[in-house]
Amino acid sequence: MRLRGIRRGFTLVELIVSLAITAIIALFVFQFATNLAKIWRTTEAGVSTELDAQIALDQIARDIESAIFQERKGADEAEQEIGLPMLAATALGDGDVSQSKRWVGKDNSKRPASWHFDPAAHRYGWAGTWLRFFTAAPSFNAVGYQIIRRTPFGDSTEPRYLLHRTVIRHDNTVNGGFDISANGFKDGNTTNGLLSPRLDGVLLEDVIDFGVRFYIYDDDMDATDDTPAGLRLIFPADDNGNLSATDTEHLAMYHSEGDYDSRYPELVEVFLRVLDDVGADKLLALEEGTSTETYEGIVEQHGHLYRRMVRLPGRF
């Protein structure tokens, strides 16, 4: 009699080993997919931030390249000995942000009090630098740039750090005079006020620092870690053209005369530090009290520094 072959099933040990191997493989696949998703999210956020920052720098460069400068004296007899600044840059401290009447939740911002003006570390003020000047495009206009922490949309309850571009109408610019540092241009309540920008003037979100460096051409200057050869740094700088953390304001009045601290720059280097999307979410969680990370740590890991060197058109 012919016996049929006996079919043998898996033993319990074999099943357990098979399940263990399958679980290990599944774990590796899950970890790989998770890491791939993180890399993709970080890369996508970085690319988006890079594109947005370059667009913002393009706009700033266009304004600076169209800047107007003309040496002028004051109208009053007492002002005849000094010029009128037509370009100004001011590093804003934590006590200055209330002047714009636009900052929201200063005490909840989590920006450290020690986050002061330190250009060597590319920190341009607790609230960045307030830059303003006159430009010829599209017409004769006063233009200002500054960071303000506020809600980006009317129905939003989450304040963000927003870089504003303020453009004053031609007629209001003319009526405001040629002193960009005073009069109506410094009043946030007037029609030609640069200090208190409107929400529709937001140029870029999640900008945690904005600053500038001013240069003039000087063949006698050697290259340093901060300045290319042939250029003299005039802001923020000491008398020798070195970076200075105490030079927090520059009022440009003269093209080729006067002290360096009142000279009109020939080159402007613009700096933007922008958080990527991941960093912006982490900063929001920190400010809401749901994160234990530090402001410095978030900035170091997710803050990206962008710069652009722009040549000014010269005297007008």
In short:
About 25% of the residues lie in helices and about 25% in strands.
Given helix and strand content, the structural type is alpha+beta
Give Rg in angstroms.
27 Å
Count of domain modules:
1
The strand order across the widest sheet is 7-6-5-4-1-10
- Biggest sheet features: 6 strands, antiparallel
Tell me, rounded to a whole number, the average pLDDT.
83
Structure overview:
The chain has 316 residues and is an alpha+beta fold. It has one domain (37-311). It is 25% helix and 24% strand. The protein contains 4 helices and 12 strands. The strands form 3 sheets. Strands 7-6-5-4-1-10 form a 6-stranded antiparallel beta sheet, sandwiched between helices. It has a 4-stranded antiparallel beta sheet with strand order 9-8-11-12. A hairpin with a 4-residue loop joins strand 2 (117-118) and strand 3 (123-124). Helix 3 (277-287) runs antiparallel to helix 4 (295-302). It is elongated and about 105 Å long.
Topology summary:
Elements: H1 12-65, E1 87-91, E2 117-118, E3 123-124, E4 129-135, E5 141-150, E6 160-167, H2 170-176, E7 202-205, E8 207-217, E9 231-235, E10 249-252, E11 267-275, H3 277-287, H4 295-302, E12 303-311
Helix pairs in contact: 3-4
